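To assess whether ligand presence alters the predicted conformation, the chain was also submitted together with uridine-5'-diphosphate-xylopyranose. Input:
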Amino acid sequence: MKYNITIIGAGYIGLTTGVCFANAGHKITLVDVDKEKIKMLENGKSPIFEPGLSELLTESFSNLSFTTNYDEGLKNAEIVFIAVTTPSKINGEADLSFVKSASESIGKSMKSDLVIVNRSTAPIGTGKMLEKIIQSKTKYKVSVISCPEFLREGTAIHDFFYPDRIVIGAEKNDTKAVELLEKIYSSTVKNKPEFLVTDIKSAEMIKYASNSFLATQISFINELAILCDKLNVDITNVAKGMKMDSRIGEKAFLNAGLGYGGSCFPKDIKALIALGKKFGKKLQILEKVNKINDSLIDFAFSKIKKLLRKNNLNLSEVKVCFLGLSFKPNTDDTRESQAIKLLEKLCAGGAKNIHIYDPVVVRKNGVENFVITKKLKKHMAKLLFCKTLDEACNKADIIVLATEWEEFKTIDLAAIKKQMKTNLFVDLRNVFSKNHLSESGFDSENIARE
Ligand code: UDX
């Protein structure tokens, strides 16, 4: 059975969801207020870099249509997904203005009773609120259910087709809406995931709790890594031993490094902390999780300074080769990227000559697509965005690896060293062992990896 599905929001979640549903044969209409984005999509071009997305967009193009107009977008809709952004407000709370405005527009434009699925990460209670907003604008019956997404950037298509679980939050009597959603997913995903049908608030909390727990694992291992660094204990061995416990698991987020970034972990933790404050419960662990993550920038900076000092070099006099800008490999997304925060710290800390290379953010998109942060804007004269790794390493004194792209894991260290002026390497994602770097002639620092 194929359905007419409308998706509001053609961003990382909405576009990936729409293209995957289209690939399964459903008729998808993507609605987005961004005219540029819709124009690109109408020309078959993906506005975002996500491995495999462009190919799938081309392959499924006949099942896809794009519009900025809600009346047009909702004309034949049998079900509507809301997949718009919920960024952080200054006080950490989730900014719901985009989901609210999308809900109002849906209410005004809907032409029949509708099931509305909220895919956007949203605070507890948002589902009910959206239902009230939509119902206030239409005479048709509205039922809002929550279906949080668990897609990781860089592997979003795989994660969509092979979900661990599909969480559906609905009112007890909303069985029709739940059955419809189960049918749509069962006819799309390529594995047999568990469906967890629960109440809306539990579904909303599952999303926040999952992301917060994943980030907690990262800050746990990073805090331990700072101690292991002092004890000359190899944190990668410690993580390996931990993952062998089936209650921790081999996929646990225990890779020590520069910490987490992205458009989810930082904002979801802030939103959960803000929710706790609002209801009088201080979430002490999560407050620490964010603080530890933030502290990694200073820790990394101190590693760079220590290595330079040991070689009688001064940050203001050296050429830095800075590798990786995206918040993780296989994405062009630099939102809340720890690499960018470290770059800002280097510039503020005296660096005058930084050559930057990132396989996608610079090479594929060029600098114009890279959103220069406010702090970086005043340091642009110190930065050179290079199109190749060689250009960035040429005559460099020190390499700083900030994002563990596959391209960096396979570099010919001996060849790179030949191009450099000095032989310093700060590996902030523990891509190489210290021994391997030393055998290749480098003097290096990393995050507690021998
Ligand atoms: C995350 C969740 O994984 C996903 O389920 C949710 O839907 C959206 O948020 P994403 O932010 O795209 O996905 O990337 P993820 O792979 O989770 O990595 C997040 C950050 O943690 C990255 O900066 C990554 O470098 C970092 N990380 C991850 C670590 O530092 N160590 C780890 O062991 C794992």
